[in-house]
Amino acid sequence: MSNRYAGLAARVYELDKPVGRSFGDVEFYAAQLKGCEGPVLEPAVGAGRVLVPLLEAGLDVVGFDASEAMLELCRAACARRGLKADLSVARFDDFAYATRFGAAILPAGSFQLIATAQEGLAVLKRLHDHLAPGGRLILDLDPVSAVLAPPGSTRRWTDRNGDVLTLTEERVDSDLLNQTVVSHLRYDQWSDGRLTASELELFGLRWWGVEEMRLALAATGFVGIIISGGYEHGRPPRRDDDVITFEARRA
Fold first, then answer.
1. What confidence score (pLDDT) does residue 3 get?
2. What is the pLDDT of residue 165?
3. Considering its fold, how many domains does the chain have in total?
4. CA angle, corner 16, sides to 13 and 22, nearest 5?
5. For the chain, which ranges sit under pLDDT 70?
6. Which DSSP string do the residues of 122-177 spell out, in sequence order?
7. Which CATH number is 126's domain given?
8. What is the pLDDT, as a whole number, of residue 1?
9. What is d(CA 248, CA 139) in angstroms, rounded to the nearest whole number?
10. Which InterPro entries does the record match to this protein (predicted)?
11. Please, what sign has the CA dihedral across residues 222, 85, 32, 23?
12. What is the pLDDT, as a whole number, of residue 152?
């Protein structure tokens, strides 16, 4: 996908999803990772919405992101709280660590940023190989209905400097065969009523079926797969769930 999360996009992300804001996932992941042996890896860590509260809970979390702008926000959030975080620029297709992790987590559907099924399988295999024996992968998926939902109206935020930031989304492609949607995102900055900066970005997502993901996890070497709905561990997903979570481990 072309998702870059550059300057204005990163600022909007921080305003919309500030550190510690939970959709039920922060508490869920903290509970599931309690007592985890070994460090935890969070790919696509963003501005630290989940990573920072996990660090505050005493977990050793390592993160990477393709966007340096997002990592700068994450580093700043850690510094304000006196936390140290191992953060680096990397992508799903090229991250590499000598460490073997006790767990890897992908909250909030970040796995769906991967463009194709083939690339998704390769990333699952790379994650599997970065886990210690018995290490767990926990990832969230949005239901298909959420991915296909039409964009809403223009959204707006006011930052600490008084600038107004707006985000307008236009759906430009829905590929049912390849299970992807692509939108044009326009980020605008308004200062004293004047447009002072704009960014345009292509934003793509791929949806995964529940059984498709279960088979993908099994095909890449994972065992002990648990599928949960609505952040209720072990409860089978229902049609009205906003999130579906998969947990699996390396044998």
1. 56
2. 97
3. 2
4. 110
5. 1-3
6. HHHHHHHHTEEEEEEEEEEE--HHHHHSPP-S-EEEE-TTS-EEEEEEEEEEEETT
7. 3.40.50.150
8. 42
9. 9
10. Methyltransf_25, SAM-dependent_MTases_sf
11. negative
12. 87
